[in-house]
Amino acid sequence: MKLKELLIRYEIENDLNHTQLAKIIGVSTSTLYRWISGESTDLKKSTLQKLSHVLGYDVEKLLHEETSSLKPILGTVKAGYDLFAQESIEGYVEVNGKDAPRGDYFLRIQGDSMEGSHIYDGDLVFVRQCDTVEDGKIAVVLIGEEATVKKVRYKNNLMILEASNPKYEPKYFTPQEVADLPVRILGQVRFVRTDFD
User: Fold this and answer.
1) Inter-axis angle of helices 29-37 and 3-14, to 10 degrees?
2) Domain boundary among 44, 65, 86
3) N or C: the chain end with fewer CB closer than 10 Å?
4) Is residue 40 located within the same domain as residue 115?
5) Element containing residue 164 per DSSP (H, E)
């Protein structure tokens, strides 16, 4: 686990900002920013002990374990066609060491067009950032300035975006439309996470 992830998780759990956490640890805000940005990762033994005391667990031990990772939630994406793609971090999700390398970020779904693929309104989809996907894969696609989650198909020189809810019609794009709008793959959906409140 990375130091950044330990610090951010502690901030989220305790509803703290960077300035407040720096004060609790007893370091300057600029030092904390260097830790979070990864600029400074070689910490003295005394600093690691101080962090362990504040965070409540052995930081040195956790830094050498690859058991989990925090991935950002980059806002909301429409499982439809009419929501602007927002990339403001609204929080972080912990994923285990096996899943962490499979993707880069989470997006929250709005809409019902992918219900046939068990992707429901409010779910989080885990996305691997990429600019191409194989035929039949579910992807986050930017159409102009609108982001959507759809199954991507390629047929007769067309790019087809298919919903998995039959009440939504597929959208067909010619190579010219793909270039002009543009239509761009932002990432492949790796799995969906549903939280039950």
Assistant:
1) 120
2) 65
3) C
4) no
5) none
117 is catalytic: no
Residue of 71, 78, 113, 171 marked catalytic: 113
Residue 14 main-chain phi, psi, to 5 deg: -110, 10
pTM given for the model: 0.64
171 noted as active-site residue: no
Nearest residue to 71 (alpha-carbon basis) of 117, 129, 29, 15 = 129
Q: Going from the first residue of the chain to its last (197 residues), give the mean pLDDT of each consecutive group of 10, the final group possibly shorter.
A: 76 84 88 79 81 82 67 72 53 80 88 92 92 95 90 96 95 96 94 74
Number of domains in the chain: 2
Task: Give bridge partners of residue 110 from the DSSP assignment.
Answer: 78
Residue 19 is part of a domain; what is its CATH number? 1.10.260.40
Query: 71, 78, 117, 150: which is the annotated catalytic residue?
Result: 150
174 and 108 belong to one structural domain: yes
The per-residue pLDDT for 57 is 75
Q: CA-to-CA distance for 40 and 101, rounded, in angstroms?
A: 23
Same domain, 39 and 84: no
Give the integer Cα–Cα distance in Å for 115 and 163. Answer: 9
